[in-house]
Structure formats: C-alpha cells, structure tokens
Design goal:
The chain is of the alpha+beta class and 368 residues long. It is built from ten helices and twelve strands. The structure holds dinuclear copper ion (CUA).
Length: 368
C-alpha cells in the first residue's frame, strides 16, 4: 500500500513554511516604520529600487498563494478516504508540466527585465569620457541614466568621497571644503558622488537615498541622489572592511540651499580663535605641539592633513569616531585612548595627561 496521506515530515515542513511567510509580514511592516529603511525612499533612484522590491514581492506573494493553495486543495481533495480505497495514480501530465515550466521562466524573465530597467534608469552621471574610461562601472553612460538626464536642468553638486579605515571623507571641489562623516547637501540638488578608497574596499550605502556602491583603492565609482525633503539620512559602510567596520557610519544632512551655502562657507573660513589665556587657547597650542596637525585639518590652522577626519566642525557633528554621540565627556574618553574605544583605530594613544585632554577637549568644543 502506498503512503498517500501527508507524512508527519511533510506536515512539519508545511507548518514551517507557513510560519516563515507569516513572520515576513510584520518584518516588512517594521521596515516601513524604521527610518533608514530602503522602503522609505527619499531620492528618485531609491524610489525606483523600492518599486522594484514591491513588484518582485507582489509576484512572490501571487506565486506563493497559488502554489500553497493548490497544494492544500490537492492534499484535501485527493486524499485517501478509507483503508480499502486506492486514489487514482497520476504519473505525468504534459500540458501541466509545460504550463508550470514556461510560467516559471516567464516570471524569472520579468524579474530580470525589471531589474535591468532599474539598473539602467539609475545610472550615475559621469563627467566625461576620460572619467568613463577610468571607471569600472558597468553600463555607465556619459549623461547618466534616464532619471539623471531628466534632471539636467536642475542644480547639481559634485562631492568626492574617500573611504578610510574607518571613516568617510567628503570633498566639495566647488567650495574647497573638506569634511567627514556628516555630509551636508542642499535639498533639491542632484548630488553626484565620485568615490574611491585610500585602503581597502568599503561600500557606500544610505538605504533611503540610493543602492550600495562599493569604493575601491585605485579606482573610481559613481553614484548620485537627490534629496527631496530636509532631514538626516543615516547610512553605514556595507562591506566588511576590518576591525572597526561596525563603526563606519555616514549620514547625509539635507538642508535648504541657503543653509548649505552658509555651512560650506563656514568650512573654508578660519575657525574661531580662542581667547588669550583660555583653556581652549592651550588646547589649540597642544593641537600643534602634540602632533594632531599631522593627521587632522582645521580650517585656518592647517588645511592639508587628510590622514584623519577634518575637525573644522567637530563640535557640530552627530558622533565622535562613528560610535558615540558628540559630547565633551565622550571627547575626553576618545582622546585618552582611541584604540580602546575603537578597535584598530589608526589614531594612537598619545599618552596625554588629563590636563592636556581637558585643554584639547575645550578647544575642539569651540569648533562648531
Ligand atoms: Cu568600511 Cu566596512
């Protein structure tokens, strides 16, 4: 006699399958409510990616319901009803096999086609043929994808991004400004990113603004976004890049064009001079004498150091070292022993005395 009832193992698999499907629903709802979700897009290219997700998700739901529906229906409709009865044995059905094989192929082709359309539509703008030749971006065209072409009349902002272990450097060539981690941009402008890395492979990813784009040493990659609403958009390095990969966030802070101009001008203006005889003035002195200037730039003090983050607006940043909120207490903690706070950090423990830590903290706190 053939075992035609649903076996225990099959019933178990079926229950697991249903449970997983049920679990995915609250997860998607959760993704909708938390800020850095790619399902809450804030840039046209991210919107297209979110639309692709929903299209594929919808197809998957239809397939799931059809397959599971037929499975449940067949299990009930064609079950063995008594011990003496043998249900009809079916050993193949050419028509049905053609339908489900070609149906699956069509669904896969549709997903492929939609994905390729989104990839082409979201192509980053690349300045010229030389940049194109130097880039290793697939499918890149010199004017970008359809979406960027549509924005050619709008204002644009070029920003050069450099990945470091473990922080992000941002340069604004049109302003001569250099900053780290917190990237200010004007609302409405198409922001064109030209990216590279100084050490290992990192990955630029602000889920609400665009898809991931890796950055490589010795190569240039491109991406873009256009923020439509003022606000802070959080992101994180998306490529395992060493001991402190977990402490390599980036954020885009979108402000009005007027606020952005003020911010950019501030970055290239000399930092405020601390008053004579103050603790901050001692801190400024130490910034040079203790060697901080070798790695960190402050506008008006030294502008060329690029080994560590530019500190011109350090007191106005969200975090210190990408892992703790900016505060004077946390700055003291950081200065006392950077590597103890951030594993593998390049900033050495300078064996600063507590007086030196106080003075440096006071000086850095004037740099908003
Ligand atoms: Cu840089 Cu992970």
């Amino acid at each position: 006699m053939l075992p035609l009832r649903l076996s225990k193992a099959r019933r178990f698999c079926f229950a697991i399958f249903l449970a997983l499907f049920g679990l995915s629903i609250p997860q998607i709802a959760l993704a909708q409510s938390s800020t850095p979700s790619p399902l809450l897009p804030a840039s046209p290219n991210a919107s297209l990616i979110a639309a692709l997700f929903w299209a594929v998700f919808f197809m998957a739901v239809v397939v799931f319901l059809a397959v599971e529906g037929l499975l449940i229906y067949s299990a009930i409709r064609f079950r063995r009803r008594s011990d003496d009865e043998m249900p009809t044995q079916v050993y193949g059905n050419t028509r049905m096999e053609i339908v489900w094989t070609s149906g699956s192929a069509l669904i896969a082709a549709a997903v492929f086609l939609l994905s390729v359309i989104v990839i082409f539509e979201n192509q980053p703008p690349v300045a010229d043929e030389v940049a194109l030749a130097a880039s290793n971006v697939c499918f890149t065209t010199d004017v970008g994808g359809e979406q960027v072409a549509a924005f050619l009349g709008t204002s644009t902002l070029d920003v050069e991004i450099v990945g470091h272990q473990w922080w992000w450097e941002m340069n604004y060539p049109a302003y001569g400004a250099n900053t780290a981690t917190d990237m200010y941009v004007p609302v409405g402008s198409v922001v064109k990113l030209q990216m590279t890395s100084i050490d290992v492979v990192h990955s630029w990813w602000i889920p609400q603004l665009a898809g991931k784009e890796d950055v490589y040493p010795g190569a240039t990659t491109y991406t873009w976004f256009q923020v439509q609403e003022a606000g802070t958009y959080e992101g994180h390095c998306a490529e395992l890049c060493g001991a402190s990969h977990a402490y390599m966030p980036m954020r885009v802070i979108a402000v009005s064009p007027e606020e952005f101009e003020l911010w950019a001008q501030k970055q290239v203006s000399d930092a405020p001079e601390p008053g004579d005889g103050t603790l901050a003035a001692q801190g400024k002195e130490l910034f040079s004498s203790r060697g901080c200037v070798g790695c960190h730039a402050i506008s008006g003090v030294n502008t060329l150091a690029r080994v560590g983050p530019n500190l011109t607006n350090i007191a106005g940043r969200v975090q210190i070292a990408g892992l703790m909120p900016y505060s004077e207490d946390n700055m003291r903690r950081w200065l006392q022993d950077p590597v103890a706070v951030k594993p593998g950090a390049l900033m050495p423990n300078l064996q600063l005395s507590s007086e030196e830590v106080e003075a440096l903290t006071a000086y850095l706190h004037t740099l908003e």
